[in-house]
Write a structure and sequence with these properties.
By secondary structure, this protein is of the alpha+beta class. The chain contains 4 helices and 4 strands. A two-stranded antiparallel ribbon has the order 1-2. A hairpin with a 2-residue loop joins strand 3 and strand 4. It is elongated.
Amino acid sequence: MNFQKWDMGSKMIFIASCAAFISFFFKWVDVGFLSQNGFSQGAVFFILVFLYPFLMVVREKRMNKKLGYVMAILGVILGIVYISSKTVDFVGSTINMASGGPYLFMAACGLLALGVYKRKN
């Protein structure tokens, strides 16, 4: 594993995977008096969408770009579903309890898609 010899796409995929993992340490739910990170919310399983692209980069193997795009899109969909599930009615108004973690995760999925596009092999 030599980060210096990787192309720009491989570096983006690696950084996106790290950012997605770091997002689980951020707050995923914040209600003011209660906040939970991605680990306690069970969102840590979302990292599985990064598994295939990350392993192909680290092992320096050829990646199926279509599968890489599917994984990135699936990650965004999971993020949207998660954020939507945290919308509740409270005292006559609708509030969303999702915090910054899922948004960082979805940004990492966008970077993953860009990395798949830029990857040479």
